[in-house]
Please model this.
Amino acid sequence: MALSLLVFSPATAIAAPPRQQTPSGEPIPRYATLKAAPVNARGGPGEDYRALWRYTVKNVPVQIVEETQDWRRVCDPEGGLAWVRASALDGRRTVMRIGASDLKLRARPAEDARVVAVLAARAVADLVQCKIGWCKITVDHATGWVRPAEVWGTAEAAQCRGR
Model:
């Protein structure tokens, strides 16, 4: 009987994990937007699963945490975790103001920059880009910078527990 010894190089030991294969070929988790309303949120990936609730507002950001060919399991800004039809989602990125107060949009990514607009509590805005601790968003023809922690839809890690 022969024994073999496996040798791992340092490069192998720190290599990134293989990308998860998904039906869409897109990474998990990732963000999407509800492109229409109403949308039923279901307990499983199919019409035969009971509806848990209904999304009644379009453009709400959601994070896709699991998928089948036709269904996506999403996490929403309230922490809800449910399945929706893939066709109900758009790849466009939006964010939602998660705080109870209005949020100042700055002219540039700095705390002392002039305020160019205000994002109301629970309002949705289009995400343009994030860099170095700031995100550029657009809402109602106004564009400005906010801290990513002040809006929901920017974190890279999965946002809902219970996966």
Remarks:
- The chain has two domains: 26-92, 95-152.
